[in-house]
Design brief:
Helix content is 52%, strand content 10%. It is built from 15 helices and seven strands. With 334 residues, it is mostly helical. The longest helix has 32 residues, at 7-38. Helix 2 (49-57) crosses helix 3 and helix 5 runs parallel beside helix 7 (118-132).
């Protein structure tokens, strides 16, 4: 019979079990590599060690392959392996590190991993690599890591996993989202009259691009060039050399910042915000001012244009489509 724990004890129990789990994961990836090297897995007729581990532990083969990949990588990364063994790195962080670390850079990347939370580690590693790799190294690594896989889910649906170089990925997302923005409620509501989620709208848009072709879709991929590095608009790090390479073939629009890194104002008396005004507001707010979402942001007049009769930066706010709609619904009810 389980004994109810108070809140403090419950938190401590979760941490204790998590630490035990992390230690067990470290031992497991080391043992599966030893098993692979021993060849003992072949005694039961398994085609690979991953297949034997998957059958013995009742996990998927891809999971066992990932354990083997991590374990083999750690054999050449003694610093990361030691910190992992002593509990200084979680399995999640080690999994990310072993995808990019080398014997030459593991010490520095390990320090980064210890400094930032797991949720930010991938972006921090990408930013570090963008600053320390040559353009040829980055292009070679991205080319080798590209891929598309799929799997059948228990409900019969097919899920996929896609890896693309950052600019190619940015182009794909912008093309999909450009289609989504063209949807209308009367055309997009399903049989139950529920408005489809963003994920559902995106997959519908992707299928349109695949079946109808996307040649007529014109999209804008925003690249931020700052003193501390270059990124896509969502913060994905990219190499400065890539920006230099694509600049001659691109239409360049500059957004000027003041000494405190704030975008400089741009105002007008027209009904709809100009592209420059949109860039200033987007750089200032970065997300929906109500809920913090970064999905399908719109430029909302607050106070409304009918009241102010002007379109100025101070009256424009980023709001996601849902919050934008809800604000106007509340106004009508009031």
């Amino acid at each position: 019979m389980s004994v109810a724990l108070d809140r403090s004890s419950l938190r401590a129990a979760v941490v204790a079990i998590g630490e035990h789990w992390s230690t067990a994961q470290q031992r497991l990836v080391r043992l599966v590599v030893e098993l692979d090297q021993s060849g003992e897995w072949a005694a039961d007729g398994s085609p690979t060690c991953a297949h034997w581990v998957a059958a013995a532990l009742d996990v998927e083969v891809c999971t066992a392959r990932e354990w083997l990949r991590i374990g083999r990588a750690l054999a050449d990364l003694p610093t990361i392996d030691t910190v992992f063994e002593t509990g200084g790195l979680s399995y999640s962080k080690v999994r990310a590190l072993t995808r990019v670390a080398t014997p030459e850079n593991e010490a520095e990347l390990c320090k980064i991993a210890q400094r930032v939370p797991a949720g930010r580690l991938a972006r921090e590693l990408a930013a570090w690599l963008a600053q320390h790799e040559t353009p040829e190294q980055t292009e070679t690594r991205h080319h080798a890591a590209r891929g598309l896989t799929r799997r059948i889910e228990p409900d019969g649906m097919i899920s996929g996993w896609l890896r693309l170089p950052p600019v190619d990925g940015g182009r794909l997302i912008e093309a999909v989202d450009a289609r989504v923005r063209r949807f209308r409620p009367d055309a997009s509501a399903d049989a139950s009259l529920r408005w489809p989620s963003i994920a559902q709208q995106r997959v519908d848009a992707l299928m349109e691009l695949v079946t109808e072709g996307g040649a007529e879709v014109v999209t804008e991929v925003v690249l931020h060039v700052r003193g501390d590095g270059c990124t896509l608009d969502d913060g994905t790090p990219i190499a400065e050399s890539l920006v230099e390479r694509i600049a001659p073939e691109s239409f360049i629009r500059a957004l000027i910042h003041d000494a405190e890194r704030r975008p400089i104002n741009a105002s007008g008396a027209h009904r709809h915000p100009t592209q420059r005004q949109k860039r200033v507001v987007h750089e200032r707010d970065r997300a929906c001012v109500d809920c913090g979402s970064t999905e399908f942001l719109q430029y909302d007049h607050d106070p409304d244009f009918d009241t102010s009769q002007q379109t100025v930066i101070e009256d424009l706010w980023l709001r996601c489509a849902n919050c934008h709609r809800d604000r106007h619904l509340r106004q009508r009810r009031e």
